[in-house]
Amino acid sequence: MSLDEVESTRPVGLQWLLHSEDRINAVPDGAVIRCAKSRMRVFFPPRYLKVSACREPGVEVERKKPLVGWRLAAWPRWKGPYMILPAVMLFGKGQDKAVVEFPDTRTTLGIRILSGGKQYLFGWKKVLSGWEFTGLRITKKGK
């Protein structure tokens, strides 16, 4: 899970990138990465972001040959002087059935993950210096 934050004196953009040797498929709420031994899903709040995935040219990574892989990019649908970009990455079994939501207000941001019969709640509140983590709560589904 990540929460990236940018503040500027003028409207700016923000781009979140993830590179992978394995294929990345963009889906409406983020992306699915099919790795050789497992799968990973990346979730973004869809109403805020545009997401794309594509093959990228070779990149030198301490190897003799360039690494040819895939790139996932996510960016806000608008520019502004203050931007936040939350992302959730889930690995392994059960992530295909997981549901991720991003409830928010003008002064709070939450991430709610429903997976394996449990509910995980993460919360932040807006303070003068940015966003302050307010806590994590895990409950059984339906409570």
Question: What's the SSE blueprint?
Answer:
Elements: E1 2-12, E2 16-20, E3 24-27, E4 30-34, E5 39-43, E6 49-59, E7 67-76, E8 80-91, E9 99-101, E10 108-115, E11 118-127, E12 130-140
Antiparallel strand pairs: 1-8, 2-7, 3-4, 4-5, 5-8, 6-7, 9-10, 10-11, 11-12
Structure description:
There is one protein chain. This protein has no helices and twelve strands. It has about 140 residues and is mostly beta strands. It has one domain (about 1-140). Strands 1-8-5-4-3 form a five-stranded antiparallel beta sheet, with no helix packed on it. A four-stranded antiparallel beta sheet has the order 9-10-11-12, with no helix packed on it. Strands 2-7-6 form a three-stranded antiparallel beta sheet, with no helix packed on it. A hairpin with a 7-residue loop joins strand 6 and strand 7.
Overall pLDDT score: 77
Q: Sheet with the most strands? A: 5 strands, antiparallel
Oligomer: single chain
Radius of gyration: 17 Å
Number of separate strands: 12
- Give the neighbour order of strands across the main sheet: 1-8-5-4-3
What's the N-to-C terminus distance? 23 Å
Contiguous uncertain segments of 5+ residues: none
Percent helix, as a range, is under 10%
What's the shape?
Answer: flat
Q: β content, as a range?
A: over 45%
